[in-house]
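Risk register update: the risk of archive-format incompatibility is retired. Evidence:
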Amino acid sequence: MPGSVFTFYSFKGGVGRSFTLANIAVLLARWGNRVLCLDWDLEAPGLGDYFRPRLAAAPTSGVVDLVDDFREGRFEPSAHAVRLTGLGELDFVAAGRDDPDYVGQLQKIDWEELYVDGFGDYLERCREHWTAHYDFVLIDSRTGISDIGGICTAHLPDHLVAVYTANFQSVRGAVDVARRADVARNRLPFDRPRLSVVPVLSRFDNREEYDRSETWRKMCVDETAHLYRNWLDQAVTVDAMSRHLTMPYVSYWTFGEQLPVLAEETPSADQIGFALETVAAVVAHRLDRTDLLARNRDAYVGAVRDSRREFGRDLRVSIPRGAQTVANELVVELERRGVKVVRSLSGDRSLLERPEDEAKHLCLIVDGKVSRWQSAEVELFFHQTLGQDRRVIPVLTPGTHPNTFPAHVGTLRYLRLSSSHGPAEVARDLVDQLRGFTPLVEPEEEPKLPALLRQALTARLRPARWDLVDELVDALSVTVGAGDDVRTNELAVDLAVAIKPRPPNGTGQQAVPEQTRRTVDWLLRVLETRAQTPTQHPNHRKDLG
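Archived output:
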């Protein structure tokens, strides 16, 4: 899919706009995305100061040189990008070269005349080039109201991140520019959807004068509430979303141009890196699935943070103390087949303290019953991996019956050890499943997703099973939104198993919970819209306005 363009704008300077953009760019790149940053604050460029320690050499060209390229008939947008070192695929286009001639070069530019001469079409070609080569294009726009600001807020972006502080001049200025951008966007001779605006309350201090800070927070929510209408899930309140989009004031990070996300790799909730991760995840999700953010912030961030993550191990084998011998034999067979395995023994409390799992998949050796420890281990795995292509595969010892398992384990497709199917055979089957050679269910069991979702709305299940269904439809909404058909089909199969009627019927069974119903309704609307959406044809109008 083509990349997305996000412009970071603030009506006033000094609100942390460039700081926010630079840190989010680093996070997106560290999460495996191809990222391009452009410093379009041409009168007061400063984004490069955050990246300077990662630049092998000072930029020799930049945004202003796009004008020279246009005048001289060149099309080389990639020529002005420099790769930052040690930050993944993160490229930077400076405002221009850092020398005395830059000011004169900038002062010669007449933006209105350029657009009359066709510079808008040239920029559109640049935009198409950038979105074809990068997952995310982040533009640092100048403050106030200007021709350059119009390029950044109306012409180029898919989404506008409006960074403001808790004063009326800042918030109302940002809201007004968002309104102006929408009006200007409608006059563009390029096909653009309505601009989505993400209000980010920056440098907000609620540690001192808590009552006063909450009063100002409410004022800011009231001023910006209408900006959420075309992207916030209807089940999420503006107040709740606003709290997720708040950058706390931390005096330590106000000195110089710093990147706290490099120092706070696993930040706690009171650190600024935690808030930066949340906003970066909103960007990475392209403003989608905000209902998941409201319910489970860590899963929301994890879904994008780990989506392209390289794991150190292929499989973690959970070993109950009564089955260590056969489990160790299975591990040996797996390693003989090239699987990188890490063992976890029931009761290993260090597992619960790890912020991330080092293994991609989990194999649960079940001996007689799923222990409390293993049940907690599976729940932790699901919590950390919601919406990702990671599997839990139970392996049952002889005499173990799955009908006694808790709901979140009992619906999983399992393998069984027996006298004729020992560790070597189970290891072979595990390898086939992990490498995609053997489906978790037979192909004819794969249901049509819309029909399956409607079936879920009419099901009557016990509360524990509804909890599992809720997790599955949450994960489906992530994979459907990302267009991941393979993972969607796998989750649909799991959902079919989860909603299948099981005796005894009647007692304790309930209709679909409202929260689950909302997610299913959203999925059905998305699937129906995609089935009916016609091909869009650009409307090339001539008036630039």
